[in-house]
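Q: What would this chain look like folded?
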Amino acid sequence: MTAAPPSTGLPAYADYVSHIESAPRRAGRRWPFIVLIVLGALLVLAPLLTGMFPRAIKGEAMIEAFRPHMNPVSLRDYREDLRVLDDARTNLLTLRANGQQPGQFPLIDKFVRDYPAIRTDLTGMVDRIDANQENYRKLSGTTSFGALPWLLALPGLALVAAGGFGLRAAANGRRGPGWYGVAALAGLGLLLVPATGGLFQAAPAAQPLIDDFRPILTTDQVRTVQGYFVTIVGADGELNSRYSGALTAAHPGAERAGITALETRWQPMTARFASLVGVLNDNVENFDAVAALDDSTRPLGVTAFRVLGWGFVIPGALALAFTAAGWRLSRIDSRPGGSTGGASA
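A: My prediction, written as structure tokens:
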């Protein structure tokens, strides 16, 4: 049997190896992640503070509601309807002047008396709609209004998450390159929204459309237009039920081309007017929401729609810039002998 080697009383080599202490991890640079958190928080807060979530949805509803009326065919029909009403009134006035009015007709008399003001008001409304066809086309061609607040808030949440997790990684001595990647994707997403959604093209279109529609999309104006419709419907009802028969009986050879044209066009005309009045009535609240959204940034010296595209581009560019700076510094710190960012917040 081989004898055990004599003990020297010194610690074995393995004892030294197993107790070697590793150098403490240096904390990574934290300030880029803090900046990303702040930027992301601002993106989340902006649509909340401006009421953009409900207001944008109402704006989208209004754009869709006006779609059947904002086209050359519909506007041409409205103008032709007004021309037919003009001719009918002229026909009635001519019959009266010729002593051929067959009795008393208060609803027709009211139409004859009030129609000049009605025509002026309705023509002005049609003119405003007509003048804004191109503005409407630009606005309706953008990214869905209802989605815009989410397209700000979701990248903002991504930046907050990337900054928060990256900050924790930096505190544990890791560089967090993956979180810089998340932040870069969020920044790119912000830049893509105005580039693909037509926001810069729509920005100049929004303000004149809001300004031109402001006088016609009020509760008082809608009630006035509803009153016009009642006047016209009442006159046609009396024309159909009493006047035409009485005229035929009293003056069978009387000229009635304008009255006949009105009767021929009456059904599609009333359908168009009823639809337009309904759209106006249903969208007063939606318009108020859009106008309020546009005015929400006036304390900053500019209306919201004029800077909508920049509201995506500027934070997107900042996110990419700070991500690139943080990534570059993390690469420097990861090199042998690289500077430590532990003292930098």
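Confidence is low (pLDDT under 50) at residues 340-345.
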